[in-house]
UniProtKB/TrEMBL annotation:
Taxon lineage: Eukaryota, Metazoa, Ecdysozoa, Arthropoda, Hexapoda
Molecular function via GO: oxidoreductase activity
Region annotation (Disordered) ranges: 271-291
One Gene Ontology CC term in the entry: endoplasmic reticulum
The entry's keywords: NADP, Oxidoreductase
Organism: Anopheles maculatus
Name of the protein in question: Steroid dehydrogenase
Family: Belongs to the short-chain dehydrogenases/reductases (SDR) family.
Cited Pfam families: adh_short
Length: 291
């Protein structure tokens, strides 16, 4: 997650993620280049410290680190609140995410109960609670930006990713109505629904025109801020959404069959590669706040 705060001559971002950071994510780099100081939140303190040092060295900004596991439930938010309560946060980017290791039927998910609990805590509770922590200051100052990173799977058929796609649909709907609630306070809330991006979570190793690199996606998505409340963030992903929804409108049964077959094929290939399937894919980036 990234949370950003601003005070007298001070601008701060908080970045939180559920998986250990190896290097600074592209979204964080874009913000650090603007001279914004950064708070990093993730599970592994040592990795956080390494990334914080990298950012301070490369961009001459200040950093702060907080160790927290967003699958652990509600107790972590009191800790986070205590550490950011005196900071004026101008922008919050909720980019935390956790999915399945591979497409799977709901009743056949490995370690079913634990996986579902962790996924909902990571994808739904974190976004809701972080907005509750950060937005009171935005209301008080009558300005702020909240960017929630959902998924294209929230608005297109996504069988065998049922819990993940439903959690991202929650984020999209939450963003839509939150934007209406707080527009009178001059707070911008945007929902971003990316399609395929070449990341560890998506398991796409090589970027293409459709499955772009994180750097390309971030640059494109940032340009939409202030122009629309909901966006795929990247033009090819908008075309993909349009094509899928048009086919769903013309022939819902055909679209369902194509989607199920595609997911079943991905599942079958994954099962051939490994007889022991991990319970979940790595969680994605989490939340960014800037001023």
């Amino acid at each position: 997650m990234i949370v950003g705060w601003c005070g007298s001559n001070d601008h701060r971002i908080i970045y939180y993620t559920q998986h250990p950071l190896v290097s600074a994510p592209d979204g964080m780099i874009q913000l650090a280049r603007k001279g914004l100081n950064i708070i990093l939140i993730s599970r592994t303190l040592s990795k956080l410290q390494d990334v914080a040092k990298e950012i301070e060295t490369d961009f001459k900004v200040r950093t702060m680190v907080i160790a927290a596991d967003f699958t652990s439930g509600g107790e972590i938010y009191d800790q986070i609140q205590r550490q950011i309560e005196n900071m004026e946060i101008g922008v919050l980017v909720n980019n935390v995410g956790m999915s399945y290791a591979n497409p799977e039927y709901l009743l056949e998910l490995p370690d079913n109960e634990k996986l579902i609990k962790n996924l909902l805590s990571c994808n739904i509770l974190s976004v809701t609670r972080m907005c509750q922590l950060v937005m009171p200051g935005m209301v008080k100052r009558h300005t702020g930006v909240v960017i929630n990173i959902s998924s294209l799977s929230a608005v297109i058929p996504a069988p065998l990713l049922t819990v993940y796609s439903a959690s991202k649909a929650y984020m999209d709907k939450f963003s839509e109505d939150l934007a209406s609630e707080y527009a009178k306070h001059n707070i911008v809330v945007q929902s971003v629904l990316p399609g395929p991006v070449a990341t560890n979570m998506s398991k796409i190793r090589k970027s293409t025109w459709m499955a772009c690199s994180p750097k390309v996606f971030v640059a494109s998505a940032i340009s939409t801020l202030g122009h629309t409340r909901q966006t795929t963030g990247y033009f090819p992903h908008a075309l993909l959404e349009l094509a899928i929804n048009m086919l769903s409108f013309v022939s819902p049964r055909l679209m369902e069959k194509l989607t199920i077959n595609t997911m079943q094929n991905i599942r079958a290939r994954a099962m051939k590669k490994s007889t022991t399937r991990p319970s979940a894919a790595p969680a994605g980036e989490a939340t960014t706040l800037t001023s």
